[in-house]
Amino acid sequence: MHLRDATDDDADLLVDLLVEAFNWTGEPRFTRDDVLRDPHTARYLGGWRRPGDLGVVAVADGAPLGAVWARALPADEPGYGWVADDVPELGMAVAAGRRGAGVGSALLAGFLDRARAQGWTAVSLSVEDGNTAARALYERHGFVVVGRNGGSDTMLRTL
Questions:
Q1: Which residue ranges of the chain lie beneath pLDDT 70?
Q2: Could you tell me which of 74, 55, 50, 80 has the C-alpha nearest to residue 66?
Q3: Contacts of 135 (CB under 8 A, 6+ apart)
Q4: What pLDDT does 120 receive?
Q5: For residue range 12-52, what is the model confidence (pLDDT) as tens digits?
Q6: pLDDT of residue 126
Q7: Which 8-state DSSP code applies to residue 47?
Q8: Contact at 8 Å (CB) between 147 and 153?
């Protein structure tokens, strides 16, 4: 497995992975069309690779295993894990068949290194209640709960 920067050409992959992230329970709660049509969820990837967007893709044998991406969202159009205008909000997903094999940890570590190198001072995210595997991963990588939004915690990682 190796990590590479997400490019303009990864927009479709990232949308598919966002659907995967939203369907973490294994139940098909959201479809690709749901994500693309909903103005709230579309904020995370609409017009992917705007200035300031950052992403990392894990690849093995030419196939993507997962990705982490982030963008800053404004207070008047916040994401689920919004903290501040200058704190990019992170999205992350690992393909279902690749979970539990260290892909997420490698992705998150690689992403945080790149974010720090870009001069970012923090990133935030939202993790739903019950998503204990993701929560444990984020905590291992230094994220702490700083707020609550519905049935999810908002977590922050200072860089």
A1: none
A2: 55
A3: 127, 153
A4: 97
A5: 999 888 888 887 877 888 888 888 888 877 888 888 999 99
A6: 95
A7: T
A8: yes
Vertex 9 angle, CA 4 and 13, to 5°: 80
What residue ranges in the chain does DSSP mark as E strands? 2-5, 54-60, 63-71, 89-94, 122-128, 144-149, 152-158
For the entire predicted model, the pTM comes to: 0.91
* Radius of gyration (C-alpha) of the chain in whole angstroms: 14
**Structurally, what CATH architecture does the domain formed by 2-158 represent?**
3-Layer(aba) Sandwich (3.40)
Structure tokens at 92: 């992350």
Q: H-type helices in 3-146, by residue range?
A: 11-22, 32-37, 39-42, 103-117, 132-140
Give me the pLDDT at residue 91, please. Answer: 92
Cα dist from 82 to 4, 6, 58, 79, whole Å: 26, 22, 25, 5
Cβ atoms within 10 A of the Cβ of 5, count? Answer: 12
Task: Phi first, then psi: give them for residue 77, nearest 5 degrees.
Answer: -145, 60
